[in-house]
Amino acid sequence: MAVRKGKISRPPKKKGQWEDHYTRKAKEDKYPARSVYKLQEIQRKFTLIKKGAKVLDLGCSPGSWLLYAAELSGGGGHVVGIDLKPVTIKLPPHAEALVGDILSLTPELEEAFSSGFSVVISDMAPATTGMKDVDAARSLELCDMALTVAIERLLSGGHFVCKIFQGGDFDAYVTRVKGHFKQVKIFKPESCRKQSKEIYVIGIGKKE
Ligand SMILES: C[S@@+](CC[C@H](N)C(=O)[O-])C[C@H]1O[C@@H](n2cnc3c(N)ncnc32)[C@H](O)[C@@H]1O
């Protein structure tokens, strides 16, 4: 490895190094991100989003889950997303994306989320540092907020999907989810990158 001016110089990344089958497929299928296939696998296994569903999508940018959830719920449904970043893709009329921070909701956002949802999905991810424990702790903070939002806004019998970076508090989080849902499943979609610590906690049937 060549060393210059005290810095380690790494071989340049090849163009498209992180492109894989799912990235290419997302482009072909006209979704803005490969993450759509994770929700698709979850949907194929658990059938959580039905026609007419009212869905809240936390961490929705760039909009793949939002678009897919809107396709599943159809025109009779409604999908609302929130993210720190705007969604710039064209959405169908029954889907909307709001900009905001789930960790400090403004009264306007509280209002937009006020009515009963049949499904709350969260693919939120913190900006990663590469430090496993820090990343897991930040992910957990987002997951706890997603669970709070789900408990407050889901209809009885509603479902919850939440991405989490596995860390020391993972089991305790799953226990918290179990307190509010009739069934809880842990699922790692095939389309998750193999090196990723992410996994999905799925709460089925919110308790009364
Ligand atoms: C993996 S991306 C979501 C991809 C999305 N599901 C899709 O399919 O297009 C994770 C998102 O979580 C968002 N996020 C992270 N922290 C957030 C917060 N505090 N409030 C809202 N969104 C947040 C990020 O801005 C990022 O866009």
TrEMBL record:
Catalytic activity of the protein: uridine(2552) in 23S rRNA + S-adenosyl-L-methionine = 2'-O-methyluridine(2552) in 23S rRNA + S-adenosyl-L-homocysteine + H(+)
Secretion signal, residue range per the UniProt entry: none
Annotated localization: Cytoplasm
Record field: compositional bias (Basic residues): 1-15
Binding site for S-adenosyl-L-methionine: G63, W65, D83, D101, D123
Pfam families assigned: FtsJ
Active site: K163 (proton acceptor)
Record key words, sorted: Cytoplasm, Methyltransferase, rRNA processing, S-adenosyl-L-methionine, Transferase
Residue ranges occupied by any Ribosomal RNA methyltransferase FtsJ domain in the UniProt entry: 31-205
UniProt KW Transferase keyword: yes
Reported function: Specifically methylates the uridine in position 2552 of 23S rRNA at the 2'-O position of the ribose in the fully assembled 50S ribosomal subunit.
Name of the protein in question: Ribosomal RNA large subunit methyltransferase E
